[in-house]
């Protein structure tokens, strides 16, 4: 049985036998939000998107440029851990910006999944604003509230659940706007008073004017190892 299930926005990336669209490209980033796959490699048409394997909580490329340019149209994608091939498929991608989130759907076993998000990198109308989205890839039963706190503003994202085996991609890929600045992130179980100890408290995140960012919450509650809880900030450059 294939260990991967793909969650795709209709018309964005779909399995296809179409001919390659010559002369156009897509921008593609990959984030490893898994619990057990500490060495994820991604190969697109024979070229590695990850020159070194992605550790848990890491993103392809660099902080300044996580996207890789790949041919649009029909291409072959391979994902593997070490020498084990996890996925080998031909897929069709329109010329656009995509984020591939690789994650587990269960805490108890390796049940990998991939969510394919189309990234709308339209800048906010107001130059003082930034755009941000929060995605929960922690496979537990908690519904969480996210608090982004700075000295002049507090942003609350409430009632966020684990994205699950069949996520609603159109909801996940939506960015919200907030004032630019440096924020301290705190994650609480929904219904918990914010004076209590949070489930997770991360490093400060600085969002500059008109920056676009995805926050990916991943890991295993209670673990202190490589699969411990973490919050990755992926910045999306507009090119």
Walk me through this protein's architecture.
It is a single chain. The relative contact order is 0.20. A hairpin with a 7-residue loop joins strand 9 and strand 10 (112-118). The protein is 2% helix and 46% strand. The strands form four sheets. The chain has a five-stranded mixed beta sheet. The protein has one helix at residues 169-172; strands at residues 6-7, 13-15, 25-33, 40-44, 47-48, 68-71, 73-81, 84-93, 97-104, 112-118, 129-136, 144-149, 154-160, 176-179, 181-189, 200-201, 205-207, 212-218, 230-235. The protein starts with 5 loop residues before the first strand and ends with a strand. The protein has two domains: 6-118, Sandwich (Immunoglobulin-like), CATH 2.60.40; 129-235, Immunoglobulin-like, CATH 2.60.40. Residues 1-23 have low confidence and may be disordered. The protein is mostly beta strands and 239 residues long. The chain contains one helix and 19 strands.
């Amino acid at each position: 049985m294939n260990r991967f299930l793909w969650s795709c926005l209709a018309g964005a990336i779909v399995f296809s036998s179409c001919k390659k669209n010559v002369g156009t490209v897509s921008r593609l980033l990959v984030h490893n939000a898994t619990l057990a796959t500490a060495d994820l490699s991604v190969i697109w048409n024979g070229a590695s998107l990850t020159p070194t394997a992605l550790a848990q909580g890491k993103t392809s490329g660099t902080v300044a440029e996580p996207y890789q340019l790949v041919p649009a149209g029909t291409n072959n994608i391979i994902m593997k851990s070490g020498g084990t091939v996890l996925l080998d498929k031909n897929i069709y991608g329109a010329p656009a910006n995509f984020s591939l989130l690789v994650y587990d759907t269960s805490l108890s076993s390796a049940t990998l999944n991939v969510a394919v998000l189309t990234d709308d990198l339209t800048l906010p109308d107001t130059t003082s604003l930034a755009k941000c989205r929060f995605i929960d890839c922690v496979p537990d039963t908690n519904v969480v509230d996210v608090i982004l706190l700075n000295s002049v503003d507090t942003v609350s994202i409430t009632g966020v659940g684990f994205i699950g085996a069949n996520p609603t991609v159109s909801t996940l890929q939506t960015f919200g706007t907030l004032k630019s600045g440096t924020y301290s992130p705190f994650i609480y179980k929904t219904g918990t008073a914010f004076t209590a100890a949070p489930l997770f408290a991360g490093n400060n995140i600085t969002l500059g004017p008109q920056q676009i960012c995805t926050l990916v919450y991943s890991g295993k509650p209670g673990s202190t190892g490589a699969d411990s809880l973490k919050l990755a900030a992926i910045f999306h450059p507009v090119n």
